[in-house]
Amino acid sequence: MEEDARLSNVQSPVWKRFFLLRVIEGNLRHIEDWLNLASVFIIMFLMFFATTEILGRYLFNRPIPGHVEIVELIMAGVVFFGIAYTERVGGHVRMELFVTRILKGRAYHIAEAITVTLSLFVYLFILVYTFKFALFSFQVGDTTAYIYWPTWPSKFAIPLGSLFLCIRFVIELIQHVSQAMAGVEMRDLD
């Protein structure tokens, strides 16, 4: 309670005045960090895997069977495990010229809230339908054509990453709406 009172007196984002939102956002940060770390390790594995495959193919004339299928299966984790983290740090490509230079105060946060809402709807759609598709793959025992590895683990990476991205979008929506309601110009909401 004292921390809530202290935060309201200091120039800080409006949403940080609410303990529950700070706890949820803090826990989500940890999950995003771990998923991003998993994505980094997958990338490192892919580098070593590609090197091993090339060396095996050209030095020993023994390529790794199904190497293309393995890389295809792993790529979903690379992309979707790090997507919520990238949104949190503002790493996605955006067209900000109009929003950052012209819009100020409430108008800026309203425009951001609209953008986040549209993104949330798109990724909710992706979340629901890729989850159904991954569940169907699991139920029928879908496998790759050449090495017969199950495809459902990589298919579940898409809804998992989309789930945490949707949670991140909800938090960003709350942040921008609270800033717009307070009429505060602050753009860095961390």
The total beta strand count reads 0
Distance between the termini: 20 Å
Number of helices: 7
Which parts are unreliable, with pLDDT below 50 for 5 consecutive residues or more? none
Percentage of residues in DSSP E strands: under 5%
Query: Helix- and strand-based class?
Result: mainly alpha
| Tally of separate domains | 1
Supply the key terms.
190 residues; elongated; 74% helix; 0% strand; mainly alpha
Quick recap of the structure?
The chain is mainly alpha-helical and 190 residues long.
Description:
The protein has 190 residues and is mostly helical. Helix content is 74%, strand content 0%. The protein has helices at residues 2-9, 19-58, 67-81, 83-88, 97-101, 105-140, 152-182. Helix 2 (19-58) runs antiparallel to helix 3 (67-81). It is elongated, with a radius of gyration of 21 Å. The mean pLDDT is 85.
Please give the structural blueprint.
Blueprint: H1 2-9, H2 19-58, H3 67-81, H4 83-88, H5 97-101, H6 105-140, H7 152-182
Helix pairs in contact: 2-3, 2-7, 3-7, 6-7
